[in-house]
Specification:
Distance between the termini: 140 Å
Oligomer: single chain
Shape: elongated
Number of helices: 27
Helix content: 40-55%
Strand order of the largest sheet: 2-1-5-4-3
Largest sheet: 5 strands, antiparallel
Number of strands: 22
Number of domains: 5
GO molecular function: histidine phosphotransfer kinase activity; phosphorelay sensor kinase activity
Strand content: 15-25%
Radius of gyration: 59 Å
EC number: 2.7.13.3
Catalytic activity: ATP + protein L-histidine = ADP + protein N-phospho-L-histidine
Protein name: histidine kinase
Organism: Pelomonas aquatica
Amino acid sequence: MLTPPPPSRRSAIWPVATVLGSVIGLQVMLAAVSIEVLSAVRAYVTGESLYSKGQKNAQLHLLHYARSRSDEDYRLFSQSLAVPLGDRKAREALQLDPPDEQAAREGFLAGANHPDDIDGMIRLFRWFHSVPFMARPIATWTEGDRVIAQMLALVERARERIEAGRSGGREVEEMATQAPLLNQRLTELERQFTDQLGAASRQTKSLLLALNLALAAALALTSLHIVRLSLRTRTAAAAEVRRRQESLQLLLDSAAEGLYGIDTEGRCTFVNRSALMMLGYERESDLVGQRIHELIHHTHADGRVYPADECRMYQAMRQVDRVHVVDEVFWRRDGTSFQVEYWSHPVMQDGLVSGAVATFFDVTERLRTQAALRESEQRLSRLIDTVADGVIAVDGNERIVLFNRAAERAFETTAERALGQPIGSYFANGDRPKLRALMAGSPGQGNGMPAHNGLHELVGRRASGEKFPMEASLSRLSMGRSVLTTVVLRDISAHLAMREERKAREALEASSRAKTDFLSRMSHELRTPLNAVLGFAQLLRMTKQPALAQAQLDQVRHIEHAGHHLLALVNDVLDLSRVESGRLNLSLEAVALQAVADEAASMVEMLAKNAGVRIHRPFAEKAGVEREAWVVADRVRLRQVLVNLLGNAVKYNRRGGNVALDFESNGSSIDCTIRDDGGGMTAVQLAHLFEPFNRLGAERTGVEGTGIGLVLSRHLVELMRGRLVIESAAGLGTVATVSLQRAQAAAPLAPAPFAPSMHAQLDGKGLNVLYAEDNEVNVELVRQVVSFRPAVNLRVAPNGATAFIEARNDPPDLMLVDMHLGDMTGLELAQALQRHPATARVRLVAVSADALPEQIRAAMDQGFEGYLTKPIDFRQLLQVLDGQMPVDVSANRGSC
């Protein structure tokens, strides 16, 4: 605790000395104030002369400018008005509430006032601006500034006229006539200001003199009274000192921060209660008088000794300046330490350092909180960096304050380079106004919650200058006066590319569907008349009563040949379209090559015989394993390829020529070769061999062809994971080689017989057939074909509705259904039949000109047990009918 010193003789005269010192101090202070006030008044007088000089010079240059219209005169005019304008700025700043002293200083400096006088001028104005002897000159000053403003407005209007190239006019004349009048008014105001300021100076001087005299008299009387009472109050004064010291100690003890004092030797002079508690001590005597550094500050946090002569707390005494330290520890009485932040202030006595006062806080908890906050910020930063979308935060000046890793990748730059940059520099020039509008149009929430404005498409600009599309969402958060805008963005280049690719793919698929639909319609429209042509040609050839003459049979064969050629063309076009669109499905399996080769050779045998060409099959002469060759292929498509290649070898051969069909093993593959000794092809023809519909000049010969057979064959071989190679030379014939992967031999599957009808098995009275067809020609054709089977009872329904009623009233053993019946499709009729109990078990066979695999598959999935494509092959139709008849009936069927 702070204790008072013992009474002494010096303390007896201390009150007298204090009073006298106070008298002198107050007198000096009043004198200083008087000097400062008078100095300020003098400065205003000096300023008024500078004001007047500036105004006079301005008037002189204005008159010159009115005559000369010179920019130099105008510049000198403006320069001369700098002093009055500066004084006006100072006056207006001091008349604000609260006064703007910085602006006032700038104005007085612009008014050419001496810098040392400005603070006094400001104080004089603030202290006495409402006093009448100062209010009057200030009002005159204000009126002068208003007149100068009128002069400036007059000159500016005239200058605009002059700069516009019109030297005359009302404005210029007004400047010439009004300027002298304004100057005269300013001269009167300056004289009035000077008189008023002189009067104010005299009144101020008299007032200060009176105050000095009054204060001197009052203080002299007071000092005499105090001296007289000093001896009587010495005891009371000493008691009051003790009371005050006790109050000061209580004040120190109530402070939350730790406080202690040290002398020049480092001994503790006092310590408050908070310091004792933080340091683990109970009484002041434990520390007062001790070298405190050795008790609480002797060691660094890492255990190193902390010498007293290095202690930064003592620097306050050595440097006579405050010291602030935040990275050291104090040690408690029990040997534990804690982090502190302390200040050390030097204590001066008689101009000399007598010690220092230390103030400190235990900042352990604060540092722990700061560390937790830093860790939280780091976690948040890492979390933002893991976000897949770019995140950019922008302050109220549109400067970037956050730039995550995804944004670095999107803009191909680093956060270090981006921070502090305007966000507009990372967007295309055309999108910057849109970005600013979006940022301005995102109203902030006053409750600390962000406001969003949806997704927007913008164009970003990478560091390399490359532009890229993006989707951006903006949210704005208002926190008091600060605003934070967050931009979450995503590079949608890949998304747009995928969207364009999807559009292109959809367009391609639509085109492919349109092409397929067209080909389907074309196939249907061509097959329908071909059904009549080939059907009736077959009927003519099958007619026995009366038999046709040989010439008539030859004519029928020509009709059939031309019809089958057209049908082959339609089939090839459909196959090529499906191959190109990727919609041709193959069933790859182990296929016996020799069997397929035999079938293909047999199918071309008649063509070769008519052309006078011999087909040799060397593989047929091989025995055992050498003759067995199994390949991975689709049996039907492989036969189609071999028929096409054999047909070409025959058609483009010479009469008496030869064609050799053979195959041989070639490692993991089997090579099937078709060699002819025809005219061959040139290199130019070979280069264009696989172009669709390009017959390489053969169209000018009598050889039939379409020009797509080879193209289709190559596609089919490639779909079977093989390779087709054509080698040829003019005059040396052609060799076609089909290479296919070798396969393990597989046991052949016996074809499942077409199951006879349940009705035919039960009644044994023949076959009841209902034919749904809206084309009369097709009806007549089927009717004549069915006439070859007397046991078949054929009924005809011209549309779907009639067919359904007929079938419901008298369920047939078999229904032949066309896929296009006018009022409904064949699939719709099948659905209606299957839903009705009376017709649910009727067996259905489609007879249609729709020949696409997906159309056939749809019919089979709907419950059709067979599908005959037009033109109808009568043998297939008769086989279907025969398969449905009971054994006793089919044994007595007619022949064709």
